[in-house]
């Protein structure tokens, strides 16, 4: 057993035990006490050595798997993700073109321009505390046993009802499978649908952790270029080998922020029906649209039932909840649940109970409405501040929705180097070029705005200019 995990006990402090273990494992990976591919001890074994409940270890492992630091290999155990160790935690001199703006430590507060986080200052803490206390008091003895692998029934029902109304996704609660994250959901469905070497259409550029999840099951990634109309389905059908699966972000592309055009949606659905292929719809930032009418979910147009809809609560509520979900066709439900059971016992019941109540009592809808207004204000403030600070040295793309701005610099040079400079000054933009699998075709910085208050926008824009040398 790695001494980095078991050489000292967890302490009874204000920090929860699972958070202490989570931080310990992340630190061990960052400091290379745990290496790529190294197997971690079984949850039962580590819990015994540390003198904690097994659920404490399960929760920490699930969170690290969901964030891509660890990889579950079922009966083969849990290992340090090879892609993470090789791509993110290497020294600056050897990182290459993997995402370089991420740092191994978890900050206590979100860093300026950090992607993938909701407005943490606007999280409804008081309401959440009340719902959590109420849910804890109502937990029955049965709820303290292993959770339902598919997810808490009330949460699945709440998600199905919400999706039918908000996103036009027709489904039954039995089709909803709760996961620990979007990445975990993608990994799960890939194990259900793919054999090693099967082709997967993947957006180019695209989300690097989704790539990691697919590579972990030995999928053959086939990059499909993205333009102002989204994934170029015509290019994929004409120039790429046959594929078993396509992974798309039709609401807002994860890098460019564009929506998949209706004509391309129809062509993608036709391709899946004609070739007996499947589509994973990552509804990335689908709830955050600020201008005009947003297109319905791809799943709402799916007459042949070939689309697996994937979502999570990491961007709408908090990534610390470690909760996502899949909506799978009825013919895949049993196999998906069986596959999940081989990988995990399920997600913590208390967190599921609170989210279920939050949705069912109408708090979720009201929260999203508040966030849309807040994000629209913060986005506009940052866009104005960047324009005032950089002038014609910066070309900015502002899409109708999403949670980040895309900034391209006329004479900025290598965006990876710009992101690296920003990190050294306590900022966290992402380099656009790092999102590409193959030869980079575009450069720029992806700038999250959700945690930059309106009154801070100009200060943060000037800090960015100073950090990258403008």
CATH superfamily of the domain at 139-361: Type I PLP-dependent aspartate aminotransferase-like (Major domain)
Rg calc: 22 Å
Q: State the end-to-end distance.
A: 49 Å
* CATH architectural arrangement of the domain at 139-361: 3-Layer(aba) Sandwich
CATH topology of the domain at 139-361: Aspartate Aminotransferase, domain 2
* Mean pLDDT reading: 88
Coarse morphology: globular
Uncertain ranges: 85-105
Percentage of residues in DSSP E strands: 5-15%
CATH class of the domain at 139-361, anyone?
Alpha Beta
Characterize the biggest β-sheet.
8 strands, mixed
What is the percent of helical residues?
40-55%
Number of helix segments? 16
Q: How would you spell out the order of helices and strands?
A: HHHHEEHHHEHEHEEHEHEEEHHHEEHEEH
Query: What strand line-up does the widest sheet have?
Result: 3-10-9-8-7-4-5-6
Number of strands: 14
Secondary-structure content class:
alpha/beta
Detail the topology: elements first, then pairings.
Layout: H1 3-6, H2 17-30, H3 43-50, H4 54-66, E1 70-72, E2 78-80, H5 82-87, H6 125-138, H7 153-166, E3 176-179, H8 182-193, E4 199-204, H9 208-215, E5 220-227, E6 230-231, H10 233-239, E7 245-248, H11 262-275, E8 278-282, E9 307-312, E10 324-327, H12 330-343, H13 349-360, H14 363-390, E11 394-397, E12 404-409, H15 415-424, E13 430-431, E14 445-448, H16 457-468
Parallel strand pairs: 4-5, 4-7, 7-8, 8-9
Antiparallel strand pairs: 1-2, 3-10, 5-6, 9-10, 11-12, 12-14, 13-14
């Amino acid at each position: 057993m790695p001494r980095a995990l078991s050489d000292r006990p967890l302490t009874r402090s204000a920090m929860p035990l699972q958070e202490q273990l989570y931080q310990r494992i992340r630190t061990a990976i960052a400091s290379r006490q745990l290496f790529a591919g190294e197997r971690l001890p079984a949850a039962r074994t580590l819990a015994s050595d540390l003198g904690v409940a097994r659920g404490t270890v399960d929760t920490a492992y699930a969170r690290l798997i969901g964030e891509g630091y660890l990889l579950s290999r079922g009966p083969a155990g849990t290992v340090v993700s090879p892609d993470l160790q090789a791509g993110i935690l290497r020294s600056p001199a050897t990182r290459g073109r993997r995402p370089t703006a991420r740092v191994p430590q978890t900050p206590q507060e979100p860093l300026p321009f950090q992607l993938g986080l909701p407005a943490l200052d606007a999280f409804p803490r008081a309401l959440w505390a009340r719902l959590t206390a109420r849910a804890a008091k109502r937990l029955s003895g049965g709820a303290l046993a292993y959770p339902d692998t598919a997810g808490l029934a009330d949460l699945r029902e709440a998600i199905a009802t919400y999706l039918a109304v908000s996103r036009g996704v027709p489904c039954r609660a039995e089709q909803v499978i709760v996961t620990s994250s979007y990445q975990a959901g993608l990994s799960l469905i890939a194990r259900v649908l793919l054999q090693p070497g099967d082709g997967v259409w993947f957006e180019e550029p695209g989300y690097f952790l989704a790539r990691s999840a697919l590579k972990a099951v030995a999928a053959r990634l086939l990059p499909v270029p993205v333009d102002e109309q989204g994934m170029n389905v015509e290019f994929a059908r004409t120039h790429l080998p046959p594929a078993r699966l396509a992974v798309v972000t039709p609401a807002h592309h994860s890098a460019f922020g564009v929506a998949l055009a209706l004509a391309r949606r129809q062509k993608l659905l036709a391709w899946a029906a004609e070739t007996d292929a499947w589509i994973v719809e990552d509804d990335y930032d689908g709830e955050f649209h600020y201008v005009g009418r947003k297109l319905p979910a791809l799943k709402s147009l799916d007459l042949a039932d070939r689309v697996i809809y994937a979502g999570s609560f990491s961007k709408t509520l908090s990534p610390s909840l470690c909760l996502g979900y899949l909506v799978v066709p009825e013919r895949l439900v049993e196999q998906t649940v069986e596959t999940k059971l081989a990988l995990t016992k399920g997600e913590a019941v208390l967190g599921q109970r609170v989210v279920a109540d939050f949705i069912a009592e109408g708090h979720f809808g009201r929260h999203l409405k508040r966030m849309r207004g807040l994000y629209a204000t913060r986005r506009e403030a940052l866009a104005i501040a960047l324009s005032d600070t950089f002038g014609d040295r910066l070309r900015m793309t502002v899409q109708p929705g999403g949670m980040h701005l895309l900034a391209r610099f006329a004479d900025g040079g290598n965006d990876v180097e710009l992101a690296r400079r920003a990190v050294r000054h306590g900022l966290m933009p992402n380099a656009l070029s790092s999102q590409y699998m193959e030869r980079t075709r575009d450069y720029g910085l992806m700038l999250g705005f959700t945690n930059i208050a309106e009154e801070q926008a100009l200060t943060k824009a000037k800090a960015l200019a100073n950090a990258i040398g403008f």
